[in-house]
Amino acid sequence: MIRDRQTDPFVPTQGIHNLRDYGGWAIPGGGRVKSGLLWRSGQHRDASEADLEAFSQLGVRTIIDFRGASEREKFPCRRHADFDAEILAHPGETSSSPPHEGGGGGVTMTAQLAYDRMIAVYTRMPVNPAMISMFRRYFEALDTREGASLIHCFAGKDRTGVGASLLLHVLGVHRDDTVAEFLRTNEAPTKHILENQSLPRMREVYDGIDEGAIENLMNVRPEYIATYFSEVERDHGSLDTYLEQTLGVDEDRKARLRDKFIA
Fold first, then answer.
1. Domain 20-261 is in which class?
2. pLDDT tens, 4-19?
3. Among 158, 84, 164, 167, CA closest to 128
């Protein structure tokens, strides 16, 4: 079921981490998620002029920004002079402890502590009211608005990774391929951008940070998305029940999304 690896989903960038197309995946039984309509990335504060021009060529009409208000204030995204997309964002905070913000200072961040922290992020996300609200708005926008869209958070890997995973599930992509798309973040050629944006802050608040901790905070692991799925399935019986009852993705909306995004 794995997507044709000859198609590189990453857009070359100088200051945006992990800008890529998360379409293109095969649907069991026939069809494929359309390419060129579904984009994801980290934040755009450090976008170069070339990045802004490249992004403007993607035809994005809607941006769903999963960051909270304080993140948007600290890291305002740069925009092209002709930028006219609609931006959807939450008026408050969307994460109590995003990895790039450090937190819990006075300790050495070990690989195990970092791993545990990331598992906690994915454990909380299914019941986080702000993220529930943003995922509902995400699916409504995909259902009702035309043109390409972009989802992003700070790093473009955790909140964004869950959002992309949820949509691919709705579209009928096999779970193995949904996880493969989630893990493709680790192949991003721009990891240095994320480290430059995140590590100085972390080094200010921790007494030390191990290399293994950096790997667990900057990358994604199969256990991260598995934690999200297992939390949802334990509490709701299935991901589809959660999507319908909590995120507003009923069978009619699923059908419309599949008509729109599957070729």
1. alpha beta
2. 545 799 999 999 999 9
3. 158
